[in-house]
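Supplementary Methods. Inverse-folding protocol.

Structures were first reduced to a discrete structure-token string of length 218. This string, shown here, constituted the complete conditioning input.
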């Protein structure tokens, strides 16, 4: 299996270079670009087509989520993970709504950061252990069982199939290949799924699907 291709975005050179070395030397990953200036990120992603972009949340000229929204507006769909010092529930919630694949903290053990980034590059949803309680609290404010069952019933058979793929953190391209349909068709189905479930991101849809499955709903 090819090494995951990673782009790092952090305005602090020490953090950027240190993490780059960790991922390369101890994680066996291919850090194809380490960027300090957010303005250079779109070009780097278009040039290298990485499996994952790791974004700092707080940067002098912008924040990671604003940058992510800009990337999506420009048609760049590279999966993203936030790596930050902020353990704020508000920031976690905003990141999930923006559709990130993970939310990690810079004070995690290096081996845990390496493992989490590797898992995210392979399609898994990753959240820092210290944030799991806050994530659970966010989820508790979501739809209750009866509401969730009704929302799930509103989906077509194809939409449920795609929702199941979303729950595994798969990209639109991966889903399109698995179901032998076009990338644009998957994007349209995902938009319909989010609208019907009253959700705003793929991560929320994935969490919804996992919770529904755990509750015995199909």
């Amino acid at each position: 299996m090819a090494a995951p291709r990673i782009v790092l975005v952090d305005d602090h050179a020490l953090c950027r270079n240190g993490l780059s070395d960790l991922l390369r030397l101890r994680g066996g990953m291919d850090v194809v670009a380490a960027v300090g200036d957010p303005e250079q990120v779109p070009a780097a992603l278009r040039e290298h087509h990485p499996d994952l972009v790791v974004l700092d949340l707080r940067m002098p000229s912008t924040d990671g989520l604003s940058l992510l929204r800009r990337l999506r507006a420009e048609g760049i769909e590279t999966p993203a993970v936030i790596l930050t010092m902020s353990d704020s529930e508000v920031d976690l919630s905003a990141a999930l709504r923006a559709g990130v694949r993970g939310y990690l903290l810079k004070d995690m053990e290096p081996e845990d950061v390496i493992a989490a980034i590797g898992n995210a590059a392979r399609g898994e949803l990753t959240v820092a252990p210290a944030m799991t309680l806050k994530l659970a609290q966010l989820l508790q404010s979501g739809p209750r069982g009866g509401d969730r069952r009704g929302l799930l019933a509103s989906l077509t058979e194809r939409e449920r199939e795609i929702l199941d793929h979303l729950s595994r953190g798969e990209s639109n391209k991966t889903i399109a290949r698995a179901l032998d349909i076009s990338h644009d068709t998957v994007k349209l189905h995902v938009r319909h799924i989010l609208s019907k479930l009253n959700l705003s991101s793929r991560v929320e849809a994935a969490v919804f699907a996992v919770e529904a499955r755990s509750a015995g709903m199909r």
